[in-house]
Amino acid sequence: MASPPESYVPFNTESQFQLSIPSPTIQTVPTFGGLDTLECLPASSLLPATEQLLTSLYFDHIQPIFPLFRKPVFYQQLITHGVPDMLLAAMFAISSRFIPPRRMDELFSAMSNPGDHFSHIAQQKLERRLKANYPITLIDVKVACLLALYEYTKSPSRQGWVLVGNAVRLALMAQLHQVDCLDSRASGSPGEMEEWRFVWWTIWRLDCTVNVTACTPFGIDRQMIGTNLVTTTVEDFTAGNVEAGVSIFPEMDPVKFWTSPAGPQLCDAGDGFNTHLFATSLLRAVSECQQRLNIKPSEDEIKRIAELDDILSSVHCILPDSFFHSRRQETEGVHSHRLRLETIVMLNTAQLIIHEPVNPLMMTMALPPDSRTVSLKSWQDSITFARAIADVLNGWPPNYFAVSDPIISCAIWHAYCGLTLYGMSGLKASTSGSTVEESLHILRTSLEKYTTYWPIARVLQDSLQIMQAWSWATVDIRKLR
Q: Residue ranges of the Xylanolytic transcriptional activator regulatory domain (predicted)?
C-alpha cells in the first residue's frame, strides 16, 4: 500500500507528536501524589511512583478489556516523555478507580475524586485540539474512547452517550474503519496496523454495547467497515508480539456470518476476542430490530427478527458444546476464559431481548400465526435466558469482576429486571434449574461485586432497590397472547 502524503496525518503511533504544554502558574502547591487539588496540572506532574502505580493499574485492569496499546511501545514513549498529557490523564481517570482505598488517602488525601480531575484535564486538552482543527490522530481517538468509557461507566448518562458518539466520529475521521480498504492510504509496520485495528474494534464494540443499553440508534454503519479482524491475541498484542497475519475481512451481517463456513471459530485469533465481537454483533442486530419494531413495525423487521432467532437457537450447533461450559478448560488461559464467559452472557442477553414482547400498541398490522413478537410463550422463554445469565455468573471467578467488561453489569441489571417483572405478572417459571429467587440472588450479588470498581453498577443497584419496592404491584399481561 502506498504511504500517505506528508500533509495527511490520519493517525500515528510510534512517532507521535508531542503537545506543547505551558507550565501552570502555581502559588501554593500541597503535594498529593504530585497533584494540587485546585489547579488543572498536567498528568505528567505526578510523582513517579504515583504515575507508575496508575499506569500499572491501567494495564492490569483496563487493557485486557479494551486493548488500545502495545505495552513496550507505550513505555518507551513514556520514558522519553512522548506520551501526551491528555492521553495519560484519560488513562489515569479510569485506572484511579482501582487504587486500593488505603493508598487513595495516601496519594490524594484532599481530592474526593481524582478520576474526575484527570477526566477534566483530558477533556479540556482534547477540546482545545479539536477547536484548533488539527488533523485527527490515533491519540485523539484513544483519548475520546477513554473519556467516553470513563463517563458512561459513571452512570448511564446523556453526557456519556454523547462522548461515545464523539469517539465514533473521531475514529471515522481518522479512517480507522477503512484501514484495509484497497484505496486506503494507511501504511505502517504490522504492529502499527494491528494497533489501528484493535482501536477500531474497541470503538465499534463500545458503540454497540452502549447503544444497546440506551436503546438508541447505532453510530456506525456496518456496511461501511473496511478494517480486517485482528489476527493477534490480546495478550500477544499487549506484549508487542505482533507479526503479519492472514487478513480476515469480516462479514458484518450477523445472519450471513453465523451461517457461513468461515464462522466464529475460523475467524478467531485464538483467545476469543473476535468471537466476542460477533456475539456483540448479534446483540446489536437484535436490539436494532426491537427498536424498529417498537417504533415502526414492518414485515421486513418481523422476518429479520425471526432469522436472528433462528441463528441464536442454532448457536449451540455452531459452537462446540465445550464453549458453553462455565468451567475453565485445562488448556484455556485466564483471559480467554473470561472472554468466553462474557460472550456467553452476551449471547444469552441477545436471546433474552429477542424474546421480550414489543409494545403491543404498535402492532396494528396483522401478524403471522407463528409470530412471537407479542407472545406470552416468548416472554416465558426469555426468562430462561435471564436465569441462564445467573447460572453463568454463579460460576464466575471472583477475580474476574476486576477485569471484565463493565457493560456486563448492564446485562445483569436487564436480567434482574426481566425476572422481577415476570414475577410481578403472577406467572410461574419453569422449575428446572435454579429457582427464580436463587437467580435473583446471584444477579444481585454479582452486580454488587461490580460496584467496587465501576460507579455505573452502583447506579444500577440503586434502581433495582426501587424496583424491589414496587414488586408488590401487578403487571397487566392481557395484551399478550
A: 160-236
